[in-house]
Write a structure and sequence with these properties.
Elements (H helix, E strand, L loop, with lengths): L2 H17 L9 E5 L5 E4 L13 E4 L15 H10 L5 E5 L2 H9 L4 E4 L18 E6 L5 H11 L6 E4 L3 E6 L2 H24 L3
Parallel strand pairs: 6-7
Antiparallel strand pairs: 1-2, 1-4, 2-3, 4-8, 5-6, 7-8
């Protein structure tokens, strides 16, 4: 994957996610691992519904800018996943109402999803009865601290995680898989929120 192709993918997915209402006020950040080991990522401050390829930049695997632009404040959360998961090629971070509300209402540190057909969109899940466990982590403005929490919470089969009152991080082998994981996650979070409204959670 070269930078120009990755930047175009990030722009396209940014417009799509903003259109879904999952990038309010420009929130969120997206990245793609490049063939040379560097990472294409959204630059700080770019509104995701209006980004173009000039709002995408390159960083090294440690999060240092390679082109003079300023990366997202949450860059360390991307580089962590790429370091821990060599197969991951793209990461998406969304801010939906469902992710924000559910993560604030959950008392524990995990959200367990079971009985949903759409869960088969997650890699390795081929049965609706499979229990999918999503970590729910307390937010922190110190990305080094938050990165340690993320690292401690991830199991080998974790497809994504929630930050309390903040949003969702999901990933995949490429942008297509990452987009599918995030779309499925957001649908399932919507379902869980509806259950909460009905009083059966």
């Amino acid at each position: 994957m070269n930078f120009d192709v990755a930047a175009r993918q990030i722009v396209d997915v940014g417009h799509w996610l903003a259109g879904c209402g999952w990038a309010p006020a420009g929130a969120g950040n997206y990245s793609v691992r490049l063939g040379d080991g560097s990472i294409a990522i959204t630059a700080s401050g770019a509104h995701k519904g209006r980004i173009d390829t000039g709002d995408v930049m390159r960083i090294d695997p440690f999060g240092h800018a390679l082109d003079g632009k300023t990366p997202s404040a949450e860059t360390l959360l991307h580089t962590l996943i790429y370091r821990l998961r060599p197969s991951v090629g793209a990461i998406l971070h969304t801010h939906s109402v469902a992710a924000t509300v559910l993560s604030r209402r959950l008392a524990g540190n995990v959200l367990r999803l079971q009985g949903y057909e759409v869960a088969k969109a997650f890699p390795g899940v081929d049965d609706h009865e499979t229990v999918v466990v999503l970590p729910v982590l307390d937010n922190d403005q110190d990305m080094a601290v938050l990165s340690l929490r993320v690292e401690a919470s991830l199991a080998p089969d974790t497809p994504c995680y929630l930050i309390r009152g903040h949003g969702l991080y999901g990933w995949g082998r490429d942008m297509e898989e990452a987009s599918r994981v995030v779309e499925a996650s957001e649908f399932l979070l919507d379902c869980e929120l509806e259950h909460l409204k009905l009083g059966d959670r």
